[in-house]
Amino acid sequence: MQIDHGKCVACSNCIPVCPMGAIYIDPAVNRATVNLDECVECFTCYRGMSKEHLNPTLVRTIRGVLKYLRIRFDPEPDVCPTDALTPQALTWPRIVRQAFSDPLVPHESTGIHGRGTEEVKTNDVTGRVNEGEAGFTIEFGRPGVGVRFRDIQKMTMALAPLPITFEKKNPVFSLMSDPATGTIREDILNEKVLSAIVELKTALEHVPQVLQVVEEVAQDLETILSIGVATRCDGQGDNALEPMLKREGHEFYRGKTNLGLGRRPAAVSA
Amino acid sequence: MTNTLHRYGPPESFRDDFIVFIRNSNGRNDVGSIPKLKEFLRTALRHRPVTISQYRFGSTVRPADHLNPRIHWTRPVQDLTAEQIIEAITKDHTVGAIFDSEAAMEAFLREVKAADWGLSVNVAGLTAPVHACAKRAGIVRHSVEYSLGFQGALDRLPERPVLELSTMCGHSMLSPNLARKMLEWVREGRRTPEQAAAYLGRFCSCGIFNPARAVRLLEAAQGGNG
Ligand code: SF4
Ligand code: SF4
Questions:
Q1: Are residues A239 and A118 in the same domain?
Q2: Whole-prediction pTM value?
Q3: Are A75 and A49 in contact (CB under 8 A)?
Q4: Pocket probe mutation, ligand 2, options A2, A20, A193, max atoms within 8 Å of Cβ
Q5: What stretches of A81-238 adopt beta strand conformation (E)?
Q6: pLDDT tens digits, residue range A152-178?
Q7: Shortest alpha-carbon distance between residue B35 and chain A (Å)
Q8: Bond into A19 cis (ω within 30)
Q9: Model ipTM?
Q10: Whether A143 and B123 lie within 8 Å, measured CB to CB
Q11: How many domains does chain B have?
């Protein structure tokens, strides 16, 4: 993301809006500027802010007078008054940032294959995770910290030797140079993204082992992990995962419940 | 995208936060799903949800590309009506309704079961009450995903009131710095909790930000507790 210095009036509205804290007023030019190394191309500033199309010279003059008189104008905080935020054309490897950070980007346009699975949300239709199995979503970077792929690789390399299967329809998987060792393409290791999710499946009895490795590696990371673990329930709606997690000392109370109302359409007979 | 899984807060902070959403499974049962998504939302409206939403479109608060400057004095806390959101469904995206009470959610789930749309319906929220409500509505849950919370460089996380607000957009579009600014503005009396919640909600592009919970959290700042 870039900011058009010809339009920017240094109102600072966009600064707190950026989840990465990548926008600042450059004192040398008195205009908002994006630290491109920290920007993850999430488009939050560009798309989330409302826009006015005011004349920059006029706005600067009014702001200058008010500032001289020590009067604080109290505008709407989510508005760029001059439409100064300007997306830049993204190429590889930087486009990886947008592919992982902007939930609205059409993924075909980024060259990254796989948008992540539907996780547990359609498990009643896909049967992706069965009784006796656990599906993990290990998410890096949220909330509001971001992650570079070299940190993700530390985790995927530690997980690869375990009795797990990485989910193949997952964008991080598509960027692994060798899924057997968990290594990720060299050319994107320094790219920073808002969030990336590693998905894997394992047998229920291996859940404690996976969680232990995740916990150990997490201590060595410069980012935050959000851990989700899913399973299929039995005919009464109970499951073996919940008591197992409690036995292991995990505290949890929130989650996503699939009510089992989805189905594939019945095959049409000839 | 696990956009509703990892909301932050103690259990009591989720007593008014149940997101019921419906979606097709791509390539498996998407044919003819759009009228079902619309019917889902219209059915939800009978049970007075806090808001309804459409993934990729948002909720009743939305950013605008051409604001009139008068808006600084006259901005409403709602930009669209529920019916406008429903009418805007043109693709088979996830749609959802957020409830602030178990009773309303349960009554809605009864209707959802009876409607039998054949699409996947999920509830994000406290798993035990959701399980109990579903049972009472005659639904046996199929699968469940538990949030085990955060690990790693926890010292990089912001403070709790900020996190409670910002994690309501699971895609992290809602910046912690903006949440902190809104808490300050409410504390300073510069905006009402409802206005601050609307500013924050406009950044959640899936529209699953819960404005009722946000207002409650922002009101705590008004009392000097936030
Ligand atoms: S909101 Fe727009 S005008 Fe204000 S500082 Fe940011 S880019 Fe500049
Ligand atoms: S695109 Fe995202 S990370 Fe980059 S400046 Fe805008 S809000 Fe910040």
A1: yes
A2: 0.95
A3: no
A4: A20
A5: 85-86, 133-140, 147-148, 164-166, 176-178, 183-184, 192-193, 196-203, 224-232
A6: 999 999 999 999 999 998 999 999 999
A7: 16
A8: no
A9: 0.95
A10: no
A11: 1
